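Late entry, written up from scratch paper. The run itself happened at the end of the previous shift, but nothing got recorded in the book at the time, so transcribing now.
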Amino acid sequence: MITNDLDKPHCHCAVFGVFGSPTAAQLSYLGLIAQQHRGQEGSGIVTADSDDSSGKTRFHVHKDFGLVDDVYRQERLLSDVLKGSSAIGHNRYSTAGASNNKANIQPFTVMYKGGNIAIAHNGNLTNFRAIRKKLQDEGTIFQTTSDTEVILHLIARSRHERQIDQIRDAIAMVRGAFSIVILTDTALIAARDHAGFRPLALGKKGKAFVIASETVGFDIMDAEYVRDVQPGEIVVIDRSSLESGEVTSLRIDDRPAEPHHCIFEYIYFSRPDSRIFGHSVDKVRRKLGKNLARSQPVRAKNPDDKVIVINVPDSSNTATMGYVQETTKLGGKAKLEIGLIRSHYIGRTFIQPNQDIRETKVKTKFNTVKGVLKDKVVVIVDDSIVRGTTSRQLVQLVKQAGPKEVHFRVTSPPIMHPCYYGMDFPTPKELIANKCGGDVDRIGKELGVDSIGYLSIEELLDSAPRENGENYCTACFSGRYPVPIDTNQSKEEHEA
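Output as recorded:
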């Protein structure tokens, strides 16, 4: 499977929710469009349509493989099929092993003793295997390979009378990373794990309330960002919320919040125009570039040679500007140039029937501006290196344009360890930094560059907002996992 960003880490999905709008499906569509970058394999929307005369609520569902615009292209689907004033939506990125299973496309819906309920989830549950085995041993039948499904079963099996207590009971049993939206017959519910790994924001559109993984989901519809859903918090939005303008806030349980926000949301996942964990992603990425310029400058061997800095479109754009700004401020000679052009019109399922064609995959995405690169000292700035295959091919592509030197600078530390909290990182043996034993010079030789430089973990954390005592998860760099994990879980079981 070749993704839009080739050899890059992937976040499993985006979630969106709306309550109290006659155009709930259309707003969900817009919110998912704005968050397309978080998942491109499939999309789904569930709406709740209440009949005031009968007092009954019907759920309407539409989901399929593909990009958001393709999934909801059918005429009048959003207006006539997905009816109702509340909705939740999901954009999906899966692991390769289960990517062709349509049953895994969220949101998931069931009808149980408490009525209709639907759920969409961003993250990974680290105790999923143990819970699933226990439920299966007790006779539970699973319809998907997704860890998210266990939450629905836990809700249905709860002995509490009130539905909100059933939901709290279920969520309190799971561990790991989860930013969740739940739709019931009468409410929209959002919840976030105690570590707050993944972002989840609360907003308003008129009197209606909206929930999104990223605030860009609000911007597209001119909704107002209110605040983040806090780590360990459950937010309940119902008709009384529309009347009072306030949501109900509950704690999942008595455990205190222990925030460990995923630092990769700032490095790569989120759009630069989003506010993540209460802060501007653009501002953080500029600081990443500035700190990289301070710690890993490039000086041409010949003082008369021109040094140009190019970004790898599009995720490193902002950090590259920060790198050039700081280099200039420190008295270095560096000029920002557009040396790589990215094609945005290549499909995601590029077929690779043999080795020769496999080696052209970078050329289907990027081409060089040869006049910009020829006879120059070139600094390539990127946000991360995972396997190293794409970076190696990009370096070779740049070298074909005839530069004097090629240097690589990375706005994150070497990725040494897999992630169990919602990123689809390869196994350790597939990570180039791990294979090279963390030896940066060896990584540079593998890529074929004159030099390579990374941010250290300390420099990375110095780039992230810390004024409110924020803590960040750096497990993929440090190997220190803030929440216990079951390392036996396979990628196919990490299917949020």
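The chain has 19 helices and 24 strands.
(Scratch paper discarded after transcription.)
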